Amino acid sequence: MPATSLDQVVSLCKRRGFIFPGSEIYGGLANTWDYGPLGVELKNRVKREWWNHFIHKQTDMVGLDASILMNPKVWEASGHVGSFADLISSCKHCKKMVREDHWPELVENSHWFQSLAKLYRNEEVSLLDLKAWGEKDAKTLAPNLAIVRNPSVTISWLAEFLENASKATKDSNEDILILSSMKELIKYLATEQLATTGLLMPCPYCGGELTPPKPFNLMFKTQQGVIEGEGTDIYLRPETAQGIFVNFLNVSQSMRMRLPFGIGQIGKAFRNEVTPGNFTFRTREFEQMEIEYFFDPEREDWKKLYEQWKARSMEFIQDVLGISKENLRLRDHEPDELAHYAKGTTDIEYNFPFGWGELCAAVAYRSDYDLKQHEKFSGQSLQYTDPDDAQRKITPHVMEPSFGSDRVTLAVLIDAYTEEELENGDVRTVMKFDKRLSPIDIAILPLSKKEHLVAKAKEVHEMLLEHTNLVTDFDVTGSIGKRYRRQDEIGTPLCITVDFGTIGEDSEQGDPDTVTIRDRDTLEQKRVKISDLRAEIAEYWKN
Fold first, then answer.
1. What is d(CA 307, CA 418) in angstroms, rounded to the nearest whole number?
2. Cα 463 vs. chain centroid, distance in angstroms?
3. Which residue from 94, 93, 206 is spatially nearest to 145, judged by alpha carbons?
4. Are 232 and 70 in contact (CB under 8 A)?
5. How would DSSP label each residue in 68-109?
6. Which of 1, 27, 189, 491 has the most other CB atoms within 10 Å of its CB?
7. Are 210 and 89 in contact (CB under 8 A)?
8. For each of the chain's 543 residues, which pLDDT tens digit applies?
9. CA pair distance 368, 339, nearest whole angstrom
């Protein structure tokens, strides 16, 4: 059984050393997360597979690592200084801020809304029922909701609204509030018409009134200079793409690149998100794995390239990382979602426990907007000279696949989480990572803490460390059954058990100089000679 809630994964991540709350001993810092010993291994492997798939295995790709801090004019050229903003409202009561475009989702996921939805499962609810809910449950869940603060005004308005609606539809049941959908429920409780009575859109957190939305710039600002207050204003980069664009000529000329070609990089980015949440799904500090693929629009069919990048991106998510096909889907952006310079964007979405959400941008067609903007603001030509025709200079167009390593790692964790009922009735939790992603490749487990048995197990461990590049764990704490379960919970594909048969003291356990290999997924155990161990392991990783 897969994870049914995000809490299951969050709990395992802390318990087993994948991800910890940031600054926890000081009470934490909202929506910051630290990758523990296993988490950093997992995330690094996700990044390694991305680099191999898109950079090393494609002859038309090279890599880059641009600086986080850039000349402020970069962000003027890109449009981030002037227009990189969300419409934000703040609650007059609890003072929390809410992005306008996130408001419906936040309300639908709030405790008070879920309570109200439970009330409306009967489909027919009277105004008296609604009033009773406001006087009881809502007082605790959303004390600043309109129906709690001003019940008579709210009920009076709804009664008038329903009376007018019933006259228009000749419906005699004007005292019954019938709702056909959750969205309609929000409309009834939070319609802007309520503003005439002094009641505005409710806060998702406490139900209070929200201020009219205003633009809020998402970039983190800092200063470069030794004297406080006298430095130059600069920004933490909100994306990695601009570092590629400003280095377009440096890379193309130094590496003698011919169109079409791509530049990829992995690096940190920062956005002052107002409503981060859902664990590592949306955070203010995150890491991008991004490609800008440059091409000649007169010689390349952009629609063909667009489809090719959609396929490459899905291949990485599904075939390389092993994320389940049934949990993935492609979604083309609607025209009103596209940036003004974009001709198309397609996301890969994943079915998270909290619903479908963007996993990555499989491809976005950015046209030639970025290079032309940097030419305009820098005064430097960024045109590409055709190596076969020196008179022909062009501004390449760009395809951009963009992945967040944190979000992709989260999807890998959720997709791997499995609870299985065993024949004896026990339930084991196992992280069924693709074996290329598992933080620990092999665990060496001596059957007991007997000194001479542990010494033999260490010999086996040292042999593997010397002759393989695998990440290993040596575990002697607890019963062998508990250690197997512990390795299952962190996703270790193979466990090697060194027992008394290995050292010739118990023939029932096995022949001398043999060990038992246990497979995480099948639970099959196989007896193998120590001399054949490396070949057996190599064969496992080859398949």
1. 33
2. 38
3. 206
4. no
5. SB--HHHHHHHTHHHH-EEEEEEBTTT--EEEGGGHHHHHHT
6. 491
7. yes
8. 777 889 999 999 999 999 999 999 999 898 899 999 999 999 999 999 999 999 999 999 999 999 999 999 999 999 888 776 678 888 888 888 888 777 777 877 788 888 877 776 665 667 777 788 888 888 888 888 877 877 777 777 767 766 665 555 544 443 334 333 444 444 455 443 443 433 357 888 888 888 888 877 788 888 887 666 667 889 999 999 999 999 999 999 999 999 999 999 999 999 987 767 799 999 999 999 999 999 999 999 999 999 999 999 999 999 999 999 999 999 999 988 888 788 899 999 999 998 899 999 999 999 999 999 999 999 999 999 999 988 899 999 999 999 999 999 999 999 999 999 887 878 899 999 999 999 999 999 999 999 999 999 999 999 999 988 899 999 999 999 999 999 999 999 999 999 999 999 888 888 889 999 999 999 999 999 999 999 999 999 887
9. 13
Residue 365's φ and ψ, nearest 5 degrees, are -95, 105
User: Tokens 């050229």 identify what position?
Assistant: 77
Strand-by-strand arrangement of the 328-332 sheet: 61-63, 261-270, 285-295, 397-404, 355-367, 344-352, 328-332
Asked if 49 and 323 touch (Cβ cutoff 8 Å), the reply is: no
> Tokens at residue 366, please?
């950015």
Whether the bond into 260 is cis, omega within 30 of 0: yes
**C-alpha dihedral, 93 to 95 to 101 to 106, nearest 10°:** -70
Q: Which domains does the chain have, with CATH numbers?
A: 37-83+220-414 (3.30.930.10), 86-214 (no CATH), 440-542 (3.40.50.800)
**Amino acid letter, residue 99:** R
Residue matched to tokens 């054949």: 532
d(CA 284, CA 273): 6
DSSP conformation class of 231: S
In sequence order, what DSSP letters do the residues of 164-188 get, joined into one string? HHHHHHT-S-TTEEE-SSHHHHHHH
Residue 419, φ and ψ in degrees, nearest 5? -115, 125
Chain position carrying tokens 């500090």 = 285
